[in-house]
Amino acid sequence: MSGGVTVRVPAKVNVQLAVGGARADGFHDLANVFLAVSLYDEVTVTPSPDRPYLTCSGPYAEQVPLDSTNLAARAAEALASRYGIDPAARNVHIHIAKDIPVAGGMAGGSADGAAALLACDALWGTGASRTELLGICAELGSDVPFSLVGGAALGTGRGEKLTDLEVGGTGFHWVFATADGGLSTPAVFREFDRLTPQAPAPEASPALLEALRSGDAEALAVTLTHSNDLQPAALSLRPALAETLEAGVAAGALAGLVSGSGPTTAFLAADAGAAEKVAEALRDSGTCRSARAATSPAPGARVL
Ligand code: C5P
């Protein structure tokens, strides 16, 4: 698109999501081990003569809100206000080419927020530092800073305070199975509170971090059992996900878990060939809407 800026941004899977009790502000303290995965949205911002407006294309487009609640629109507005962008220059067309499942526990909305922020920053030449951009990301949502940085990171606080993590070897192979309909993240956290009245302080698992560092898929698979504290809540709200998890493991996945707050399920595979086989078996199983292979870690948001 002429005069526009396009940013590509990855989805994420949480290989660990340790959740503490509800805080006074309603959020939960987390030990959140993020891995960016090679499923991407592309967000293009183009100067527009009209008021800011959003469009979306791709397999999940009809599920994306195209109003001011969309994180991409909120990111553009937040950056414009912070840097005093002239009201006329604020008028942009934001197009989201969406390939990350919507309301699926893969931070698709957060990804679009981070991408729109980076794209508007490049379009308007604000000169914002990386730290300033990360600060705006944290205000937009707990997962938005990670969408900007990508790779692998431990998120503490409500998930927004990031420490980079090392991933060894040649990375990991995954399959993501999408479900019909999304799950609301606040609803899953509420169900977690109901099921877990006395949640201990969240801590990252040393064995899991070591498995990432060494790039050892089998060792990582062992640590994925019970690594997502939101999984029992997601399964309680959507019991059919247990069948998807069983089908993926029966097809040869090393491990299966709910991705974040779900309902997407994630399966770790030994290699690219095994991932393709698991994806095919899941598609044939009738327990999911679609299944796709992807790799991690993937780079964070970047201008194309
Ligand atoms: O930060 P974000 O806006 O993405 O969070 C969405 C919702 O998820 C919050 O309103 C809250 O209900 C829940 N949440 C939480 N604790 C976190 C992150 C999110 O309870 N650490």
UniProtKB/TrEMBL annotation:
Pathway assignment: Isoprenoid biosynthesis; isopentenyl diphosphate biosynthesis via DXP pathway; isopentenyl diphosphate from 1-deoxy-D-xylulose 5-phosphate: step 3/6
InterPro entries, A to Z: GHMP_kinase_C_dom (IPR013750), GHMP_kinase_C_sf (IPR036554), GHMP_kinase_N_dom (IPR006204), IspE (IPR004424), Ribosomal_Su5_D2-typ_SF (IPR020568), Ribsml_uS5_D2-typ_fold_subgr (IPR014721)
UniProt keyword annotations, A-Z: ATP-binding, Isoprene biosynthesis, Kinase, Nucleotide-binding, Transferase
Q: Which Pfam families match?
A: GHMP_kinases_C (PF08544), GHMP_kinases_N (PF00288)
Reaction catalysed by this enzyme: 4-CDP-2-C-methyl-D-erythritol + ATP = 4-CDP-2-C-methyl-D-erythritol 2-phosphate + ADP + H(+)
Q: Does the keyword field hold ATP-binding?
A: yes
GO terms for biological process? isopentenyl diphosphate biosynthetic process, methylerythritol 4-phosphate pathway; terpenoid biosynthetic process
What Gene3D superfamilies does UniProt report for this protein, alphabetically?
Answer: 3.30.230.10, GHMP kinase, C-terminal domain (3.30.70.890)
Q: Where is the GHMP kinase N-terminal domain?
A: 70-151
Molecular function per GO: 4-(cytidine 5'-diphospho)-2-C-methyl-D-erythritol kinase activity; ATP binding
Q: What is its EC number?
A: 2.7.1.148
According to the UniProt record, what class of enzyme is this? transferase
GHMP kinase C-terminal domain mapped to chain residues: 208-285
Q: Does the keyword Signal apply?
A: no
Which family does the similarity line name?
Answer: Belongs to the GHMP kinase family. IspE subfamily.
| UniProt-listed HAMAP family | IspE
Q: Give the protein's function.
A: Catalyzes the phosphorylation of the position 2 hydroxy group of 4-diphosphocytidyl-2C-methyl-D-erythritol.
What's the name of the protein?
A: 4-diphosphocytidyl-2-C-methyl-D-erythritol kinase
- Naturally occurring in which organism (per UniProt): Streptomyces beijiangensis
